[in-house]
Amino acid sequence: MNIKNLTNEKRKIVSTLGNFNVLEYYSDLSVSPSSAEMEYFMSKMGVHRRQVIINMNGTNSAVLQAGAMQWIAGNIEAQTNVTGVGDLMGKMFKGAVTKESAVKPEYKGVGTLVLEPTYKYIILQDVSQWGAGMVVEDGMFLACDGTVKQSVISRRNLSSAALGGEGLFNLTLSGTGVAALECNVPMSELVEIEMNNEVLKIDGNLAVCWSASLNFTVEKSTKSLLGSAVSGEGFVNVYRGTGKVLMSPVAASSSLFMATNSLSARPSIG
Question: 99-118, pLDDT tens digit by residue?
């Protein structure tokens, strides 16, 4: 099968890792009169749509967040890998606590697999470079190689996690292969912190992903609850041990992504 005009002067591959490619729309002409002005100024500010394109060669497979597939070219089939009611219930629990889809379809075959466009940035990571694995912040998982293992990890002190307003569980990716994450900031802006039996404290969920070898808890910013209230910090995310953390330097602007959600829901041309 010959696919033409997938990339051109307005749509270019900006990053590649393994069989995963990220296509970025530098100029999007598929707009309506009501959205043209917003799209114009968004493009001037570097706010672009992006898509993941996965090359399927018959020996690899890809696991996607449910509903992430946009179109397929070639002999590629999807399967749910649900073996029974008990397995389905387990997947539903995992999805509920990590804010991911309960069942993630796995695609196999030969051809090209294209995911839905998003205005968020696509971060490609080699899971094998994270040692025992990488823990992903809730809702960031988009896709991964079928060789990547998925599991759920809980926080050590669940009571403080609840008081701190954070989730109690996170998705962990381990093994070998590529993972694609949706992030509010580009990879070039993420701060990478390498730790050697040290402690990192972050006010808020700015961490995008971190080594599974780290001990992750939510704790009071000071020794006493009163002191935390007075300091204005309350609870902080604490990472202890040896490993690394990818952290966003700023909190994402929710208004931007609320405004662009309706635009990214439109089918793209090309």
Answer: 445 578 999 999 999 999 99
For 106, the domain range is: 11-183+253-264
Indicate the pairing of strand 106-115 with strand 69-79.
Answer: antiparallel
Helix residue ranges per DSSP H, the chain: 36-44, 85-98, 158-163, 225-231, 254-264
3-class SS of residue 94 = helix
What CATH number has the domain bearing residue 125?
A: 3.60.160
pLDDT 10s digits, 26-45: 887 778 888 888 888 888 88
Confirm if 257 and 182 have CB atoms less than 8 A apart: no
Give this prediction's pTM.
0.80
Would 170 be classed as within a structural domain?
yes
* Closest CA relative to residue 131, chosen from 193, 178, 174: 174
> Phi/psi class of residue 67: alpha, beta or left (left: φ > 0; alpha: ψ in -120 to 50)?
left
Q: Counting beta carbons within 10 angstroms of the beta carbon of residue 14, is it exposed (0 to 12), middle (13 to 18) or buried (19 or more)?
A: middle
* Overall number of domains in the chain: 1
Q: Are 135 and 205 in contact (CB under 8 A)?
A: no
